[in-house]
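User: Carboxylic ester hydrolase, Sphingomonas kyeonggiensis:
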Amino acid sequence: MATLSAAAAPNDPARVTIASGPIEGSVEGKVIAFRGIPYATAPVADLRWRAPQPVSPWTQVRETKEFAPICMQQMIPMDEPQSTSASEDCLFVNIWKPVSVSARLRPVVVWIHGGGLMNGGSASRIFDGATFANNGFVTVTLNYRLGRFGFFAHPALTAAKEGPTGNFGFMDQIAALKWVQANIAKFGGDPKQVTVVGESAGGISILTLMGSPAAKGLFARAVVMSGGGRNLLAPRTLPEAERFGENFARSSGISASGPEALAQLRALPAATVSEGVFMAIGKVPGGDTYVGGGMIDGTVITGATEDIFRAGKQARVPLIVGATSDDAPIGARPGDKDALFAVFGANQAAARAAYDPDGARDADMVRRAMARDRAFLEPSRFIATSVARTGQPVWFYRFSYVAQSLLPSPGARHASDVPYMFGTVAARYGDKLAPRDVQLSDAFHAYVENFARTGNPNGAGRPAWAPFRAGDKVLMDLAADGQVRMTRDPFAARLDVAEGLAGSR
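Assistant: Predicted structure for Carboxylic ester hydrolase:
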């Protein structure tokens, strides 16, 4: 993968020796970037569907100046296009650090990308960590196995007893965080000051890690952007997941069992394993041949996220959590308005008042609002409430801002907040970037930086962001007009009836 050169020159700021060997990054202004550092060995051949294994060490300097491949997937057009190809050999991290030397270790921000646990990667200009690094942080982005490579079970795999099974993508994230703990000080980062940040599937991942005993102690703070939190995306049981794996094996012409079946599955071409599994609106990815995400294995996942947070058994770390105002309408129900409101039972009148107060909204508008509330907006409030009840500080937000070049728009779409958080809006919007876009990005990015530095998003020069308390109807709105303000949640009535529906399940 990487070019090997002669032994590292002394006092070269772009040369670092980590546990596995010396590496060389590239100086880019006031930042040094290291791209494509392996944190585990390639999960190929007999290591396909195995927990990540330690990387083999090297002695010569390994160049880490270019992105390594992202994890194998059926590629689709994405808002954050990747600048490299996809491969099974994909377990790499990327790091940005300041050129300047500090007497104290710096706070660390670790990004976990979204993509439905099926698509995406770390090789996007939107996920560039230079803005954080320019402000004194060490930034890490990572790849993790996706789709059937990352989430797969089969009776032959269970019987092989090769270690934890099923949740390979989450195991990769845990391995990467352990790598950070072991190596980040070499880059000037403080392993005790790690903040994990993730959006969509990345947010789901962080909530999963907060509830996982296998991830205990690997991060000090968390930021969850559009990460759900209710049982709408609950993990399967292992026997259920195995049935999906058996269906996939049969669809691939594999009828054997035991070691023979496992050998045949591991011999399948990567393109066959990834076929049919990708983000698509209105389509069930992989049908009955892909489990769709995590499963309860007793090691990585011990229960559903909703149940763990309701019981207060999640990691006790400070949290920022929120969603976008026009988030993804996952699970939108077909039918006319009467059918849509019928699911609320005795709360139909309250639901109509919240979603269709004048009776004039079309069914599709109501359907989409209900779906986004159930999938993302109400679950984010539920997570905030659950964390607040444990006594841990939590800050609740709504991202309502839309880039000026995209107006008019009904609201902020799913994942549209990511470049604002990263401070990469110029890369996202190019010559269409407006001054108000930059101002809003500066504000959101500053809150996240303050939080990653101190455990509190507040800082000089920004509107005060009050911690969330259970029962609150207020939040921090990164508002449509470009202002940032604490305000009563305009969707509070909607979320209240959505909460009632969630509580009835």
